[in-house]
Structures are given as C-alpha cells and as structure tokens.
Amino acid sequence: MKKGVFTLLTASLCLLAACGTSSNSSKEIVMKSDYTVNTEVVEIPSGDNTLYGTLYTPETDSKTPLIIMCHGYNGVGDDFQEEGKYFAQNGIATYTLDFCGGSTRSKSTGETKDMTIFTEKADLLNAYNYFKTQDNIDNNNIFLFGGSQGGLVTTLATEELGDEVAGMALYFPALCIADNWRETFPETDMIPKEEEFWGMTLGKNFFESIHDFDVFSEIGSYPNNVLILHGDKDEIVPLSYSEKAASIYEHAKLIVMEGEGHGFAPEAAKTAREDVLSFMKENIR
C-alpha cells in the first residue's frame, strides 16, 4: 500500500470504503428472499463520540440474524447500501456504520486526525455490544464484515469477540497497512504531527499506534468460519496478504476474484454479495 500507488486509486478505495432463536427458525428466516425492507438511522454511543449508521431490517415478527458492515479508508456506511438492502430482503438485518473520524463524509462525530485502526475497532465493538441486546436481533447469529481498512478492523474485533461472532466476511482486507506505513516512516521520529493522505488528514497517533504492529501475530485464533474475497489485480492490497490470512485461520475460505482490483466491478460485486449471503446462510447457528 505504498503511497505512490495509493494516489492512483483513491476513488476505488473510497467506494469500498442467549436471546437467540433456535437454529431451525433462523434458517427458515434466511431462506425467504422477498422480505419488505425497513430502514432507520441508528446512533450508538462510542466513547466520547456517537456512531451514525443505517439499519436495514426485514419486516418480520421474528428475531433476525445481523451483519455489521465496516467501510474502508475515507469511506462511509452508505457505500454498502446495495448490500444492506439485499441482505435484508433475504432475512438478514444489516447495519452499515460510519466510523468516528473515519471519513471527511462521515455522519458520525469525531475528527479524522483522531482516528486510528484501534479507535475504529472500539467503534465496531460498541456497535456489536449494542445490537446483541436488541430484542429484534438474534444475538447468537451476528456476523461481522469489513472491506479494505474496515477488513483489518474487523479481523481485530473478531479476534477479541471469538465464538460470539457467527462468521466473518472480508473484502480485500488491508492487512498491509502497518507494513506500508512503516516503509514510509521507518523511525517513529520521522512521523509528522499530521499527514494529508487521500483527501483526509491523519494524526500522529494513527501512525504511532501501528508502527510496531504485526498483524499476523494478532489474528488467526478466531474459531469460526471466515470468508475472504480478493481480486487478483489488486494494486492496493496484495493478494498475498489474504492468502496468508486464509492459511492461518483454522476455517477460512479465500475466493480469488479474477480480473478484479481494489473494489469490485458491478457484476463481480453482485457475485460477491451473493457469496456472502450464502456464507451467512451456511453459518446460521
């Protein structure tokens, strides 16, 4: 994720950016594919900030599984509008959040210069903890999803939550972020107070917090199924990072999207969300 290459592909990344029901009743919910979809804004406290997100829910009196979707660098939850509607039509509630300080377009509170990978992880954990107490959510079947930087954040949150998470799906997870910025700033005294990058101002903490971070020593213990989709033409996040991730999780499947880069073309995006839906159906508990 070298700085020179990043600049050429900014647009691609910004686009990506015990109450449970029984196993049988959950499977009946997700097999239906014509639910009416309701949408509402849900705001969640996250430290001193407030997370903004959109909740897509199927119209049903039953508890529903949930997938929480995490956007990439300088993205927003609305980047996943199509996925939110599609999953809800198929019986799975979807929450698409804006990370606090995660974008110049974010509707959550917080400044971009205060955002780090770890503040975003905290945001995701706060969203998860909120939804697992909601009466309309099957809290035995909460899935986590992340794209690009959101994929890295999702792996870290899932590592902490463990078996509580029913399954994890990732699009081109940016597991390379710490490595890339270490190349840019090999020594911590080289890190500036602020850095303008891809249209967004990052603060010193973003870089310092990951300078000595080895992602592959921090992930891999999540015990449930993992689905990773990654294009073989990705010039932002090398496919090799997802290949390595797939090899260290006990139950991981990597789908290589032929000809796709960092962000999927419309037809590939359709195939990808169908793959994620199938993955969730197969892993309903």
UniProtKB/TrEMBL annotation:
Nucleotide-binding among keywords: no
GO MF term list: serine-type endopeptidase activity
Gene Ontology biological process: proteolysis
Keywords: Hydrolase, Signal
N-terminal signal peptide: 1-17
Tagged with keyword DNA repair: no
Peptidase S9 prolyl oligopeptidase catalytic domain residues: 80-284
One Pfam match: Peptidase_S9
InterPro entries, per the entry: AB_hydrolase_fold (IPR029058), FrsA_esterase (IPR050261), Pept_S9_AS (IPR002471), Peptidase_S9_cat (IPR001375)
SUPFAM superfamilies listed in its UniProt record: alpha/beta-Hydrolases (SSF53474)
Name of the featured protein: CinII
Protein source organism: Butyrivibrio fibrisolvens
Gene coding for it: cinII
